[in-house]
């Protein structure tokens, strides 16, 4: 009796789900949200497009699942800010941010979020919600003061802008500067926003 050959597609199991997420992270990071189709993600993962839809429902569902970070900023930022003297909070925040981006496990989903937000309003909405929830709200709660949300969003814009220039665009000499060099230059700007010397942001 003749037998049919294997198609090379992965069976629908947990390994397939992880392969889809890995493929999605790579494609979202390289092409942005609009450039990474369900068909392309499936091909990269070695599965049928229908299996992608089975696991995640929509491309937005794939994007949200693929953007899951190894840890949530909202769970770590308060400890970073409170982890030493207030007048060194800018340095701690800058170092935490640069170390996070330099870690491959976190950089891929973060790159994917920023690249995708630049080309898709849908992805921009998801990134905006993530930043408001995980970065600005947690940072504002950690620094306190009546204008803490504004100062936190300004500090967040400094960090997102740095990420775009250093890791996405590759702007030199910033892109090739050492982490210590970047932290040394970024820390004073963050310090002024987190804990202004004039006390304007204080309680």
TrEMBL record:
Q: Recorded GO terms, molecular function? A: DNA-binding transcription factor activity; transcription cis-regulatory region binding
Segments traversing the membrane:
none
Instruction: Quote the InterPro entries the UniProt record gives.
Output: Homeodomain-like_sf (IPR009057), HTH-type_TetR-like_transc_reg (IPR050109), HTH_TetR (IPR001647), Tet_transcr_reg_TetR-rel_C_sf (IPR036271), TetR_C_16 (IPR041678)
Arranged from A to Z, the UniProt key words for this protein are: DNA-binding
Q: Tell me yes or no: is DNA-binding among this UniProt entry's keywords.
A: yes
Q: Which PROSITE patterns match?
A: HTH_TETR_2
For this protein, the DNA-binding region equals 37-56
Pinpoint the HTH tetR-type domain residues. Answer: 14-74
Q: What is the name listed in the Swiss-Prot or TrEMBL entry for this protein?
A: HTH tetR-type domain-containing protein
- What organism is the protein native to? uncultured Solirubrobacteraceae bacterium
């Amino acid at each position: 009796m003749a037998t049919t050959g294997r198609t090379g597609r992965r069976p629908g199991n947990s390994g397939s789900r992880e392969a889809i997420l890995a493929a999605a992270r790579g494609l979202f990071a390289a092409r942005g949200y609009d450039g990474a189709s369900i068909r392309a993600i499936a091909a990269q993962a070695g599965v049928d497009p229908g299996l992608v839809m089975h696991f995640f429902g929509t491309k937005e569902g794939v994007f949200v699942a693929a953007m899951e970070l190894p840890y949530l900023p909202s769970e770590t930022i308060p400890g970073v800010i409170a982890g030493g003297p207030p007048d060194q909070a800018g340095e701690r925040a800058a170092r935490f941010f640069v170390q996070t981006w330099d870690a491959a496990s976190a950089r891929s989903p973060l790159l994917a979020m920023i690249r995708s937000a630049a080309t898709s309003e849908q992805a921009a909405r998801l990134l905006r919600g993530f930043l408001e929830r995980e970065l600005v709200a947690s940072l504002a709660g950690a620094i306190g003061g009546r204008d803490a949300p504004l100062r936190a969003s300004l500090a967040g814009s400094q960090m997102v802008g740095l990420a775009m220039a250093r890791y996405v665009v590759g702007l030199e000499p910033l892109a090739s500067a050492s982490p210590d060099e970047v932290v040394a230059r970024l820390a004073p700007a963050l310090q002024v926003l987190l804990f202004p010397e004039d006390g304007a942001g204080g309680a």
